[in-house]
Design goal:
The chain is built from 11 helices and 11 strands. It is of the alpha/beta class. The strands form 2 sheets. Strands 6-5-4-7-8-11-10 form a 7-stranded mixed beta sheet, sandwiched between helices.
Amino acid sequence: MVPICRLCQGSRMHHFSRRDAKNGEPMSLMLCQACSLVQVTQLPDAVELHRYYSHEYRENYKLVHTPATKHIVRAAQAAIQRWKWISPHLPAQKSMLVDVGAGGGEFVYLSQRQGCQSMGLEPHQGYSEFARQAYEVDVQTGGVDQLNEACADVITLFHVLEHLRDPLQVVQQLHRALRPDGLLAIEVPNILQADASPHNIFFSAHLYYYNALSLDLLLSTHFEKIWCQHDGNLCVIYRRRSEVKTITMPTPDAASKALNTFHSRGWWTYLTEGKGWSKPWRRYQQKRLEAQYKHLTPRNILDRIDHQLKRTDQPQLF
């Protein structure tokens, strides 16, 4: 059987292999020449995938069952940055926000403190239980399949979409779950970003690798893009369409540009354009920061981060 792209159904696939950045195991991948989506050659079984994310993923990738202090600090830092690019687009009235793949519940907690009615869905049992106990937030053990119809004004997925087995089905589920004019905020690794080390790009838990072109192709049938930044990770805000459109393939020139960028990425780009030379210093600074929080409880860490957020010039909407 000739392999086809699971996004655009194209059959012009470039096959290549890389090694998992965590365990060094070989990975078989393919790059669609029509839409530039990178995807694993063989999808894992759906039942096995569910078991993996509910019981093993955090243990394999972070070596913990519940988040350590350094993970909480990093999640809080990320939550601040995410709130800053999402909040200007939120409606004036109180929004119902659902964070899919909520991790330890840090963004749910902080967005709730900023005035949203927030809940989360997190498949990992240890992390979802931690969120409920540490922050007393509504983080249910589950995933995108648990979204009810018209249940949210805002849905967020931070580093989640690349893990999901059937992205086309997921887009339909998200569209169904959002209310009219609802917002979808997505952050995924950008396969074309310059600041990712060539040794730290491919992971067996990532089934798809998006860029701005392929992500828009996936979502534009059901959502309209209203904001985007892709200097590092790909961060995009979409508004729900009232009527679903047919898929519009990228132009050959746009696809060619994305493909050329993908093939040109390497150590030189990372060290120069991506400023990889400064990474050891940034790691040192991060560890010093994390050490300052070791004596605090998870909630105390989040409260300090929340206080820092309120002292910035970020407007408060609620």
